[in-house]
Amino acid sequence: MEREREIMDVAIEAGHILLENGAEIFRVEETVYRISRHYGIDSGSIFTLSNGIFVTADSVGTEPFAKVIHVPVGSAHLDRVAAVNQLSREIEEGKFTVSEARAELERIRHMPGKTYRMQITGAALGSAGFAYIYGGSPMDSLTAFIAGALLYVFILFVSRPHLSKMVGSITGGAVATVASMLLYNLGLGEHLNYIVIGAVVSLIPGVAFTNAIRDITDENYLAGVVRMLDALLVFFCIAMGVGLVYAVAQRFMGGMVL
Amino acid sequence: MNLFAQILAAVLGTVGFSIMFSVPREYYPLCGFVGGAGWLVYCLALPHLAAPGATLAAAVLVVFLSRFFAVWRRCPVTIFLIPGIIPLVPGGDIYWMAYYIVTDQVELAAEKGFEAVKIAVAIVLGIVFVFQIPQKLFRALIGPGGRN
Fold first, then answer.
1. Nearest in space to A176 (alpha carbons), one of A201, A140, A142
2. What are the distances in angstroms from CA B67 to CA A59, A89, B70, B106?
3. Domain spans, chain B
4. Is A112 helix (H, G, I), strand (E, B) or coil?
């Protein structure tokens, strides 16, 4: 009984880390099944939504086990997804006892993320790259690098800790556009449009969009549709943020900047 | 169009996204390769196909390579797929749609919006079909030489 509980807790914790950090529903369920089955529980059932996991187990002769956990969607940490994936494979190879697996999951949960400086550099690189491939000049790309970095500072210190997703995306789009306009008016870059396209790129909900498609393909419609709605809403909000700034600029500066 | 610079920008952009999504450092080169290869196909296909067709061709390659690398390096396909697919996401079209709406050019806005939908559908098709290829095929392609 105690052991069953311990096994299920480990399996669910693995699923929790996966779901929270950007894994597909299929991978979450598969991992929970694999871990519980390896330790001898065949009666497990799992149902996963985009932000919750429902698990039961009911072996003969033991008290039934049931657990529901709420998993608020955070920002993606694919290194944790990879680590849990590796752990689940090694559990199946018999390399971990239940308590060792629990300790390893604890370690994965607290794996240090990338430093702020790394993340800002990543966002800036993304902005520079995409400003160029969407049609900008090298100078536009350089300007987008700066604007993209500024936007990510805003994301890290204002929108992620303090704002809801929708407001964060709208203000993010607006901040990126204002930053691009300022830089452009300082004489940096040649095409404002491409600078803005590059600058907002780190807001693109790539994880939600890709996972939504994967989940719908796997016939996990409920989770997939919720994630797709999430992605579309964020796309819409970014466009709205950019559009709002343009509309205000046009109104008060007579469209000079456009 | 300077193809080499285009590919370089796509590779750097993809690596930038890998950093943002906390991909383990050892996979940055492969992620960059997936993103760059996808964009190369897109650029090569664009003179012959419309943007959605070129996106489909690129998406097929991106998903195929992601699955190949995932089996080879024994890690989740998500690691390569999410950063690699981002250059194909119709961010530019969505931007132009917003731009044309604000500047009161509704017809152009509708055109760009519809284009964005078509490109998104092309990405979906690429993902859906290439994920139907059985995992066994990738194992067979890699053979016993895969990392353990």
1. A201
2. 36, 18, 5, 41
3. 3-141
4. coil
Please state, in angstroms and rounded to a whole number, the distance separating the CA atoms of residues B144 and B72.
10
Residue B148's pLDDT is: 43
Q: Which two tokens stand for residue B104?
A: 């009161």
For residues A15 and A248, give the distance between their C-alpha atoms in angstroms, rounded to a whole number.
Answer: 46
Task: Taking residues A24-40, report their average pLDDT.
Answer: 93
Beta bridge partners of A66: A56
CB B14 within 8 A of CB B36: yes
For residue range B23-79, list pLDDT tens digits in order. Answer: 999 999 999 999 999 999 999 999 999 999 999 999 999 999 999 999 999 999 999
Q: Give residues with Cβ within 8 angstroms of B14, minimum separation 6.
A: A129, B31, B32, B34, B35, B36, B83, B84, B86, B87
Taking residues B109-122, report their average pLDDT: 95
Q: How far from chain centre, in Å, is Cα A91?
A: 26
Residue with tokens 């994630």: A227
Amino acid, single-letter form, for residue B11: V
Whether A127 contacts A147, CB under 8 Å: yes
Task: Please indicate whether, in this complex, the C-beta atoms of B89 and A85 are within 8 angstroms of each other.
Answer: no
Mean pLDDT of B108-126: 95
pTM: 0.91
Q: Which pair of tokens denotes residue B33?
A: 């390769």
- CA-nearest of B97, B93, B63 to B80 is B63
Query: Which residues from A are below 8 Å from B103, CB to CB?
Result: 246, 250, 255, 258
**Contacts A207 to B, Cβ<8 Å:** 21, 82
Domain ranges of chain A: 2-109, 116-253
Nearest CA in chain B to A119: B20
What tokens were used for B109? 């806005």
Query: Residue B122: closest CA among chain A residues belongs to which residue?
Result: A213
